[in-house]
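Table S2 (continued). Query chain:
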Amino acid sequence: MSTRDAEIESAAFDLLCLLVSSSRGALEEGVYTASLRLIHAAERLAELVSPLAGDEERRAFYERTAAELGAGSTGAYLRSAEDYTAFLDSAVGTVAAEIRKDNGLG
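Corresponding output:
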């Protein structure tokens, strides 16, 4: 296994563990904390696949998305439910724009 493959496998293992433990924790933590864990998983996934992206534009999307999720999620979560909801709305907008672009709609 190459060093890069080992790094990817290790990151995927970490993500798998986060998702499984988060699914159990969500039962007691409540909706906002469960949501924050999902955002952290999305951030890790974007970091993981960024180097594998087929083109520079998609790589930039993954890198930008990972950075935005990492920089904004916890702070917004800690400030207020309203700030966190606005952060999530913005994150959904970012992903929706990429989906539209992929489908030739924007």
